[in-house]
Amino acid sequence: MPSETAGWDRRRVLLVLVAFAAGGAVPIQLVTLSFGYAQYVRGIAMGPQVLSVAHEFARFYIPFVWIPALIALAAIALYARRAYPDVSRRIVVGFGMGVVATIALDTIRQMGVIHGWLPGDTPVMFGKMATGSPNFTTYWPVGLLVHVTNGADFGLFYAFVWGKRASYRSAILWATGWLLVVELGMMTLPPMGPMVGLFGYNYAWPQLFILTLVAHVFFGVTLGLLVQHFLTEEDRGGLTTLIRGGVVG
């Protein structure tokens, strides 16, 4: 039986919190911390050097933080399948639907790459940051993996914090609101903020901002619909409900 203290299932609480951190903040911070190191700590905002300097941080963060976090997330999802199926379900649905929503986002994002409204192709930027290699066959698949995993983590974050809503309309509104927060962060934080100015003002204004805004809204709508569809009635409620799911009444 899971250990309990004052009505709290401590094992459940630990699993949820570790999964939430391992599947959300830790992987997402690979991008912001790596580029933040280059752009803020080292004072390099643009140019090829920013990628090599970001790699200085990423080459330690990836093997010692990023990969272990994803392994821990997968292990929790497998472990929880029998004892805490709702925890496992939110991991699988959130992460999986985040991947699908990222593909939806890319249908919009690619227009920015084609028309030059973005300073670069995201998988290329992430791949060179992660690998430090100029070889396309090396950096492209790694960059694509980082990009898709990043989107999946945003999906997991949504599934954990909001869960199944009362209606599809509510799910769309909450998911889109969450992605608007992501858009705000993208337009003000590394790597985009320092590179192109706030909201792209110093690069391709207003095309860059409009493009990324539409792409994130598209991501949010897709994510909200899919998570709402695949979660069950047992998954109603947010993060607090998920944590307290094992509380003795």
Order of helices and strands, N to C?
Answer: EEHHHHHHHHH
What is the count of structural domains?
Answer: 1
- How far apart the termini lie comes to 16 Å
Helix content: over 70%
Query: What value does the Rg take, in angstroms?
Result: 19 Å
Separate helix tally: 9
What sort of overall outline do the alpha carbons produce when their principal axes are compared? Answer: globular
Question: What is the topological layout?
Answer:
Layout: E1 4-5, E2 8-9, H1 10-41, H2 48-83, H3 85-115, H4 122-131, H5 136-162, H6 168-188, H7 192-196, H8 207-230, H9 239-243
Antiparallel strand pairs: 1-2
Helix pairs in contact: 1-2, 1-5, 2-3, 2-4, 3-5, 3-8, 4-5, 6-8
Question: What does this 3D model show about the protein?
Answer:
With 249 residues, the chain is an all-alpha fold. It has one domain. The protein has nine helices and two strands, in the order ββααααααααα. Strands 1-2 form a two-stranded antiparallel sheet. Strand 1 and strand 2 form a beta hairpin. Helix 3 packs antiparallel against helix 8, helix 4 crosses helix 5 and helix 6 packs antiparallel against helix 8. The N terminus is likely disordered.
In short:
The protein is mainly α. The chain contains 9 helices and 2 strands; from the N terminus they run ββααααααααα. It has a two-stranded antiparallel sheet with strand order 1-2.
List keywords for this structure.
single chain, 249 residues, mainly alpha, two-stranded antiparallel ribbon, 9 helices, globular, disordered N terminus
